[in-house]
Design a protein that fits this description.
Blueprint (H helix, E strand, L loop, with lengths): L11 H13 L4 H4 L9 E4 L2 E4 L7 H13 L2 H10 L26 H18 L13 E5 L3 H12 L9 E5 L4 H8 L7 E6 L6 H15 L11 E4 L3 H7 L6 E2 L17 H7 L1 H20 L6 H14 L5 E6 L7 H13 L17 E3 L11 H6 L6 E8 L5 H20 L3 H10 L4 H11 L7 E8 L2 H22 L7 H17 L9 H11 L2
Helix pairs in contact: 1-3, 3-12, 5-10, 6-10, 6-13, 10-11, 11-18, 12-18, 13-18, 16-17
Length: 538
């Protein structure tokens, strides 16, 4: 018989929270939220300011959520993560990515320090043009080939910090096994001036290896085999296979079992970031994340930003019946941030059993989605304002831009603040009626249109602001969400660090691929067989 005592649904706090929701659900956010006397609750940490004043909670609810977290062992579980203990129980591993962000003076792992120095040397050599390709050609382009965490993290960070990429080679990313992804990136590039960076822990990930093989063929069409090592770098734990591929052993950076893929941009997987913005910028990214680590490790639960954001997610998912959550960065450079959070959040907490293997009796992870503001205002914001679903929103807001166009930045900030205000306050039918009357419409037209123009409001949202999007602030922002995901997993008692559902699809693709490429002995179900036949008959 499995032990299910760790399930949060078995705690008195869970039952109390259900009663509190029933007690307060008829109130508005403005009536309910009493987190501070001046109507706002901003908590500052690691360069970020988080405003919780437009969430559907009051101090009584927050206190009960904090009590639930403590009952689930939150302080102890945070200590276990930071200390590098075995928090990934199904794979018997630590999840010690915070060790990668320690200052050089506090680093206790020699292998981490050595790898960081190797990242610095490679990035410096590429940026100062001392790394030369075939025929002593300058390297002008770097193509990162990876997938999942080996792509999403560095791709997002390079995009977010694009204002700093003024020197050094141009960095490109390829992830999709669809041949058009690689072909599109390689168009216009020259093999003699291109470096391929292969990121794969096993050096056996199908999508990455297939793209790497195609890239190698492209290189060898123009450079001699003897020069291949000048054009290929790898991040992998499988040194032997990488060397056999054509990578010089000195150009292989390690990966460790205690760093999960979606937490790996801080490791050698982040080499593209160091190449794009320089190692000093990469170090600032690590420092910003470390500052958030310090806050997460030391702040009490009731003032701990990742914990509070996680507890709000538990509140909305489990008691307010929210099925999804939107992340809306009001920054063009953070346009890929929602994509990055989809993997971080849903691959981590999309689980249906507790850590002991017993079934989860409540919903866990919401669906994460979003896009950059103000683009979304002209599409899906309609659903946020007048749809029937409760969708909590995180607004990510750099107050100032690297651009010189102050007026346009003011428009951007105004739009973000207006969206937050509109979601909370809405527009009553009485206000809509008055607006229509002031415009001179007839009573009949007013009666017909008023309900269409009204918005219910009372849609919870959080503003996460920073002065400017810098490497340090980006590092803090990513670490904030990493720790939020972990804190939510602690409350739900699930393992945030495995991904067996991802592995299942990989396993099933192998025999299907064999059948698609002529193996008549491969057997499968009728539906899959139908599509295999359609493919092979073309």
């Amino acid at each position: 018989m499995r032990n299910v005592k760790a399930s949060p649904t078995n705690t008195p706090h869970w039952q109390k929270l259900a009663k509190l929701h029933a007690q307060y659900q008829s109130q508005s956010i403005e009536q309910l939220n009493d987190l501070s006397a001046n109507g706002g609750q901003c908590i500052d940490a690691a360069g970020l300011s988080v405003d919780l004043s437009r969430n559907f909670v009051n101090q009584v609810i927050v206190d009960e959520l904090v009590a639930l977290a403590k009952t689930q062992g939150m302080p102890e579980k945070i200590n276990q993560l930071i200390a590098g203990e075995e928090v990934n129980n199904t794979e018997a591993r630590a999840a010690h990515h915070t060790a990668l962000r320690l200052p050089d003076s506090a680093q206790t792992r020699a292998d981490v320090g050595e790898t960081q120095q190797k990242i610095k040397a490679l990035a410096d050599n590429l940026r100062n043009k001392s790394w030369r390709g075939s025929n002593d050609t300058e390297i002008t382009d770097v193509v990162n080939i990876g997938i999942g965490g080996s792509d999403l993290g560095p791709r997002m960070a390079c995009n977010a910090l694009s204002s700093m990429t003024t020197d050094g080679p141009k960095v490109h990313f390829v992830a999709n096994i669809d041949p058009r992804d690689l072909e599109t990136v390689l168009q216009g590039l020259k093999p003699a001036s291109t470096l391929i960076l292969i990121s794969s822990k096993s050096f056996n990930t199908t999508e990455t290896l297939e793209n790497a093989l195609s890239a190698r063929r492209w290189l060898l069409e123009a450079i001699p085999q003897s020069d291949l090592s000048k054009h290929v770098i790898a991040v992998s734990s499988n040194v032997e296979k990488a060397v056999a591929f054509g990578v010089d052993a000195d150009n292989i950076l390690p990966m460790w079992d205690w760093v999960g893929g979606r937490y790996s941009l801080w490791s050698a997987i982040g080499l593209p970031i160091a190449i794009a913005i320089g190692y000093e910028g990469f170090r600032e990214l690590l420092d910003g994340a470390h500052a958030m680590d310090e806050h997460f490790a030391t702040a009490p639960v009731e003032n701990n930003l990742p914990c509070l954001l996680a507890l709000l997610e538990v509140w909305y998912v489990n008691f307010c019946n929210a099925h999804s959550s939107a992340v809306l960065p009001y920054s063009h450079e953070l346009g890929l941030f929602p994509d990055y959070l989809q993997q971080l959040t849903m691959e981590s907490n999309g689980k249906q059993v507790h850590k002991d293997g017993s079934p989860v009796l409540s919903r866990t992870c919401p669906t994460i989605w979003g896009s950059a503001g103000t683009i979304g205002q002209h599409s899906f914001h309609q659903l946020l304002h007048q749809g029937t679903e409760l969708i909590p929103v995180d607004f990510i807001l750099p107050l100032h831009s690297h651009s010189d166009e102050h007026s346009k930045q003011a428009h951007l900030v105004a739009n973000c603040l207006a969206q937050s205000k509109a979601l909370t306050e809405g527009k009553s039918e009485a206000s809509a009626t008055q607006e229509l009357a002031d415009s001179g419409l007839s009573d009949a037209a007013i009666a017909e249109l008023a309900s269409h123009k009204a918005s219910p409001g009372n849609r919870p949202n959080t503003i996460i602001a920073m002065d400017k999007l810098t490497p340090s602030n980006l590092g803090a922002l990513v670490a904030l969400y990493e720790h939020k995901v972990y804190a939510a997993s602690v409350v739900w008692d699930i393992n945030a660090f495995d991904q067996w559902g991802v592995e299942l699809g990989k396993q099933l693709s192998t025999p299907i691929f064999a059948a698609l490429t002529g193996d008549d002995s491969a057997s499968t179900d009728k539906t899959t067989a139908f599509w295999i036949k359609r493919f092979t008959q073309q």
